[in-house]
Amino acid sequence: MSRQIDYKAAADFLRSHDNYYILIHQSPDGDAVGSGFALCSALRDLGKKANVMCSDPLPGKYSYITDKYEPQRFNHSTTVSIDLADTKLLGKTLSGYSDYIELAIDHHKSNTGFAERLTVDPDASSACEVLYEILTEGEIPISELTATCIYTGMATDTGCFKYDCTTPRCHIIAAELMKEYSLPIGRINRVLFDIKSMERLKFEQKIISNMKVFLDGNCAVAAIMLADLARWGVSEQDTEGVAALPMQIEGVEVGITLKEKEENKFKVSMRSAEKVDVSEICMKFGGGGHTRAAGCMIEGDVDQVRMKVLAAIAPILGIDLWMV
Ligand SMILES: [Mn+2]
Question: Who is most buried in 24, 111, 194, 220, counting CB within 10 A?
Fold first, then answer.
């Protein structure tokens, strides 16, 4: 039904269609925003009409990208997705497009193959990296805005070029972009990784104070309940990036963040240091992602969900769950 096409074929597809809706995942991160707007900007530079569509509001820190964007009016005819591993992640507002995606550009090895055509490279650091290859291979021009977007997604998904998914290729692409355009990378990276609002820092402080460590110190679990968000005056989008916090504790192999979505339903984010393939664990629960960063939804109360996750991780670490 769906078939993998190479970079060149994906570029040919992009050139030969028009009036695009570009779908990105809910709770958008820097790669979703970066790749969505990079594709949009490249298509518009080709004289095409294109809009980026997301179920959720876009986090304000990407305003150096989103401020340069105005939605266009046109009769939509082509639907593509980027950085989307599964149509479940489209969210309610966009779920109606699930069966009509003509091209999926992605880098998740857990991509469910929902689209008519797929350009999925699980070895790429980010959807932005895949898009860069498509654009250069297909000789589609890259403007300064497109380059800024691509750099943003690559920086985000590699944790500022420090995770294991950072390859020589990532550095070469980043270097090419820097050589060609005057990207303010110091400022971009400060916005992406360093600057936090006072509220956000206080929010992190609360998460950290509620964090617990399990499995002989190998797993740290942070739980964020809806009631906490309400009490702390924090919105859903303000929780982006909190999954990195449990990993900062010395000795932790797997960092787990449980975010209550509705009563007895949690979005579980997992991060791994070196030993555990968290995408495999998340796939067991119907989710997916990457070796070092993955997610899934699990039902139950917070204690049950935590137990389910720890029970799945313990054998991989060779720890007897019941002895801890
Ligand atoms: Mn990504």
Answer: 24
